[in-house]
Amino acid sequence: MDVSVIIPVYNAERFVREAVESALAQEETAEIILVEDGSPDNCWDICQLLAVQHAKITAIRHADRKNHGAGASRNLGIRNSHCEYVAFLDADDLYLPNRFAV
């Protein structure tokens, strides 16, 4: 089972790396889509760096670079996903091991 993990990112520069690492640790994670939501901090730079460092990661943002909220960011992530299954992860949260195990 391949899963797209969508992570809306807003003011989470202190947490997003750890969230991404927890998603990468899941065997089923085929791609991670970081949706930067107009953060005033360095989130966009961090998202771009993570995308360069990991082939499974894509960093995107809203066209107008404004804050649209978590729901709109999740929807943008869904529109850019390539897997049959989609999961969400907040940028300040973590997946426990075997998150997608059945």
TrEMBL record:
Parts forming coiled coils: none
InterPro entries documented for this protein: Glyco_trans_2-like, Nucleotide-diphossugar_trans
Pfam assignment, any one: Glycos_transf_2
Domain Glycosyltransferase 2-like: 4-100
Gene3D superfamilies to which the protein is assigned, alphabetical: Spore Coat Polysaccharide Biosynthesis Protein SpsA, Chain A
GO molecular function: hexosyltransferase activity
Full protein name: Glycosyltransferase 2-like domain-containing protein
Organism encoding this protein: marine sediment metagenome
